[in-house]
Design brief:
Blueprint lengths: L2 H9 L25 H12 L3 H7 L1 H4 L1 H8 L3 H30 L1 H24 L3 H30 L4 H30 L5 H37 L20 H14 L3 H15 L3 H8 L1 H20 L2 H21 L4 H19 L3 H4 L5 H29 L2 H28 L8 H6 L8
């Protein structure tokens, strides 16, 4: 073989029409041809539903809080344990999820395996309810948690593989929106489903059957994982794509190189999130007791954070991309959430107002906070950094969920709200310290978008 022939595959980066695989029939149509943009967007729809079942089932306990406590004869502490047992495995696994996908399973097999964990975990959870066994239900949530966060990592990996260099920010926003849609649908349909089943069954058996409906949603997401694996493998063959790999290796030694600004971002993350998700987990009975709402109306109010953030997250992400000033937006989100919790705790103003504003505030904070990590951490350490940040967040959620349940059992909801307000104050203090530390180092995190584009060298920590 001649020298030029040996070099040809290495130098020929542009596809050669003569060498391309010919796609015939339906496989060559706009919708089925991986070389066409329409096919990518159809795959994106499947990609967005990959975690739908996981997010739908995550808040099954919140949607059925009152009936679950009554049917199983458990207290709030045991109830909130269903959230803690989800978070415990993710204190470790979310750190290694990207590593497992990148180095062991691959994204296709990884997504299928994690979807199976989610499905099996929900089945165990529902079976535990059928036999009135909170211990089995805890085991189910633990198995469910093994797959839940790692499945989100697989979803993000698919997004990068299919959309890197194109519309990646929009894709991440859509995925976040669909995750919130799954939570919203759960909040608004699980109680009517329970009531419909209650005509034939009652007590914990009715609860178990209702939770099996959630398992059906997980099976739907598993089908999406299998479909994505097929389309991704086909696209690799047709487009002659190389296997996706990453230099973001898990290295514990990287931790000593992380700046103070990263640790302050992590403190903000855990202090803010523990004041939102555990509150939603306990919100149903809170709205029933304080405002006299029916279970259906209470679920509607409780789901507003998810409904609002589903639509607002992509919009705020776009706005923050254009404006910059990330720390300003983070402080705005924290202050707004502080005000919402204060209104819910100390007034009887219609909670629709406070929960709607909290949904906007959550969208603002999430859109502004997570991208800041890429501005302070080198690209080859981002996998480790995000893993540590998620591990800290899940540790906080696991512990605070248990503590929140104990507070409700022993002190009531007013003290619980004061507890959440204290965490938000901690998040606010950390945000102010972050601003001061960042300002002393040039203020890169709070630059406007125009200033960032004019100072690429200063921002090149990557």
């Amino acid at each position: 073989m001649g020298t030029e022939e040996e070099k040809k595959p290495l130098l020929n980066h542009e596809p050669n029409d003569d060498e391309e695989e010919e796609l015939k029939g339906c496989g060559g149509s706009l919708a089925c041809n991986p070389r066409r943009g329409l096919h990518r967007y159809l795959v994106l729809i499947i990609m967005c539903f990959l975690s739908f079942g996981s997010y739908f089932c995550y808040d099954n306990p919140a949607a059925l809080q009152d009936t679950m406590i009554k049917d199983l004869s458990i207290n709030e502490s045991t109830f909130m344990g269903f959230y803690s047992w989800y978070s415990w495995p993710n204190v470790i696994l979310c750190f290694f999820g990207g590593f497992l996908i990148d180095k062991l399973f691959g994204v296709r097999l990884g997504a299928i395996i994690f979807s199976l964990f989610v499905t099996v975990g929900q089945v165990i959870f529902a079976t535990g309810a059928m036999f009135n066994s909170p211990i089995v239900m805890d085991a189910g949530r633990f198995v469910f948690g093994i797959g839940g966060e790692s499945l989100a990592v697989a979803q993000n990996t698919y997004a990068v593989k299919w959309f890197q260099g194109r519309e990646l920010n929009m894709v991440f926003g859509l995925q976040l929106s669909f995750s919130r849609v799954g939570s919203t649908v759960n909040m608004n349909v699980m109680h009517p489903i329970y009531k419909a089943i209650n005509t034939a069954l009652d007590g914990y058996k009715c609860l178990g059957v209702a939770l099996y409906v959630g398992a059906g949603m997980c099976i739907f997401s598993l089908i999406c994982a299998l479909s994505l694996a097929y389309f991704d493998k086909r696209a690799d063959r047709v487009l002659k794509r190389k296997v996706l790999s990453s230099d973001e290796k898990i290295r514990i030694t990287d931790v000593k190189e992380f700046p103070l600004t990263f640790w302050l971002i992590s403190v903000i993350c855990v202090a803010y999130y523990v004041a939102v998700f555990p509150f939603v987990g306990l919100g149903l009975v809170f709205f029933e007791m304080k405002f006299g709402f029916s279970p259906t109306l209470a679920n509607s109010v409780n789901s507003l954070v998810y409904i609002i953030s589903a639509g607002a997250s992509p919009l705020f992400g776009f706005l923050i991309d254009k404006s910059g000033k990330n720390i300003f937006w983070v402080i705005t989100g924290i202050l707004s959430t502080l005000g919402c919790h204060a209104v819910l705790a100390f007034t009887f103003i219609n909670p629709f107002v406070a929960m709607s504003i909290m949904g906007l505030a959550y969208s603002i904070l999430a859109s502004a906070l997570w991208p800041m990590v890429s501005l302070v951490i080198k690209s080859n350490q981002l996998g480790t950094a995000y893993g540590i940040m998620q591990a800290i967040q899940n540790l906080g959620l696991a512990v605070i969920s248990l503590v929140a349940g104990i507070i409700v059992d022993s002190k009531g909801y007013l003290i619980l709200e004061v507890f959440f307000l204290a965490w938000l104050c901690l998040a606010l203090i950390a945000a102010v310290v972050l601003y001061l530390v960042d300002a002393s180092r040039g203020g890169l995190l709070n630059l406007s978008s125009t200033q960032r584009h004019s100072k690429p060298d200063e921002l090149a920590v990557n």
